[in-house]
Amino acid sequence: MSNTPKNKLWQKAYDLDAKIEAFTVGRDRELDLQLAPFDIAGSLAHGKMLSEVGLLPPAEYELLAEQLRQLYHKALDGEFVIEEGVEDVHSQVEMLLTSALGDIGKKIHSGRSRNDQVLVDLRLFFRAELATIVRQIATLSSLLLEKAEANKEVLLPGYTHLQVAMVSSFGLWFSAYAESLVDDLELWRATHHIINQNPLGSAAGYGSSFPLNRQRTTELLGFRELAYNVVHAQMGRGKTELHFSFALAGTAQTLGKLAMDVCLYNSQNFGFLKLPDDLTTGSSIMPHKKNPDVFELLRGRCNQLLTLPAQMAQLNGNLPSGYHRDFQLLKEVLFPAISQMKQVLDLTTYAITHLEVRDHLLEDEKYRLLYSVEAVNAAVLEGLPFRDAYQKIGTEIAAGTFDPPRELRHTHEGSLGNLCLPQIKAKIDTAMNQFNFTSWEEAMAELTK
Predict the structure, then answer these.
(1) Whole-structure pTM over 0.85, yes or no?
(2) Interval 3-31: pLDDT, tens
(3) Angstrom distances, CA of residue 232 to CA of 42, 90, 199, 217, 319
(4) Through-space distance between the first and last CA atoms of the chain, rounded to whole angstroms
(5) Rounded Cα gap, residues 379 and 241, in angstroms
(6) Does one domain contain both 394 and 428?
(7) What three-state secondary structure class fits 48?
(8) What does the alpha-carbon distance between residue 221 and residue 48 come to, in Å, rounded to a whole number?
(9) How many domains does the chain divide into?
(10) Are residues 44 and 193 in the same domain?
């Protein structure tokens, strides 16, 4: 057995086997760098509360706060390092405080466990990442509405079963995805509401005999409310990640379908859209090829993200209440997925900005049957019962005598002639206003300034 450095919050009189340590630490030192600013912010709030309830002299808190704020800005600037032999971000922060302040640095852990430290770190991290993703979704949704407005008169074949079905338009197509993303925002709003509860003070999951003021740390960190029951707070580990994964998967489903449409519509057999040459790749053997690789990869990334809830559920499966080390593996799955979603949204927005639509598509003879429903409806408006009108037009089509009417009379809400783009925009605005990110962003800025 090999000895290991004693840089652990749980360190006992014995040393851990190096092979066991490497396995149990896993990727924590790497992934915890993303949690560093939030761990430090949590310590600032916890320390301030300790000073206010008499568990830490105010002068000592000020010394701790000065060090913590320096570390916080280092972490934001990417200069925070978890040193070799240090187990995780919690150990690194406490080690640095103790190195700078001696015994004062050791006092920051009073009334806390690594369990509730990581709980609050994750909720603060998820909250911030969620805000970034939600704002990206709102930007993309608004862009799609702009594209819808610009192309609302450009007609497009609509398909069901991959068969020519009815007349559509680019205005209808673009705004459909804009409004679908608003539905995704509602799922993100529910996720934000669940995440934005304070678990700090639950300690190892059973509370503390110290007279902690958990409402105070809730205020300092800008949480909307406490996770009151300390066992419930601990049970949030794993469930929080599961909720986040559902939101990621929901948005991935929307974006993956959009990417698939673009791949299909860009192909020569359809030819509805054109990607600029510099957004395509070529073939090593076929000089004519211009491949939509970016949208193919976006589709593939979204399909990966769709598997997240299953992965979260499997890692959480059959675990009783209380903390278990299995939870550590959730970070290895979810953290990269969050980065992936942000990249997918960024690239989708960039590529959609440069999409070119083709007009006069319906002049092609193969789309003449798109107007069959228009002919049926016209006959109904002249007094023929619908089923009779349906049979009449069907007979004409079979006989090859069908002469399609080209005039469109769609007026109801959400149809070709009435896209309701302002109403969809109002949906976006309403959804975004309900997040109220500024309430906790201001609290975090005040705490860490």
Answers:
(1) yes
(2) 344 455 545 555 656 666 666 666 767 78
(3) 19, 22, 9, 18, 14
(4) 46
(5) 55
(6) no
(7) helix
(8) 11
(9) 3
(10) no
